[in-house]
Amino acid sequence: MLQDLAALTPPLVVCGAFLVGVVLFLRRQMRAGSRPEDHEAETEIHDDGSNADTDDPKAVSSDDRGMS
């Protein structure tokens, strides 16, 4: 009977370490206030609804595509 328990010890240790890692990872990810504010995200969307990169010379405006 002890040999059966000894055979289960390594998988149980690995399982326990995995569960501890998952708990620590989730606590770190779900921590309140740890996410930096992205102030640039609001500046990327313009009032006209377009989200084109104006600095990109390959970006084509809607007038150039025949859309109105």
Estimate percent helicity: 40-55%
Strand fraction equals under 5%
Please tally the helical runs, counting DSSP H or I stretches of 4 or more residues: 1
Write down the Rg.
27 Å
State mean pLDDT (0 to 100 scale): 76
Low-confidence stretches: none
The CA-CA distance between the termini, in Å, is 79 Å
The number of strands is 0
Biggest β-sheet: count, sense, barrel?
none
Order of helices and strands: H
| Overall 3D shape | rod-shaped
Which structural class do you get from the secondary structure elements?
A: mainly alpha
Describe, in plain words, how this protein is organized in 3D.
The chain has one helix at 2-30. With 68 residues, it is mainly alpha-helical.
Q: What attributes characterize this protein structure?
A:
single chain, rod-shaped, mainly alpha, 68 residues, 1 helix
Short description:
The chain has 68 residues and is mainly α. It is built from one helix and no strands.
How are the SSEs placed, and which strands pair?
Blueprint (H helix, E strand, L loop, with lengths): L1 H29 L38
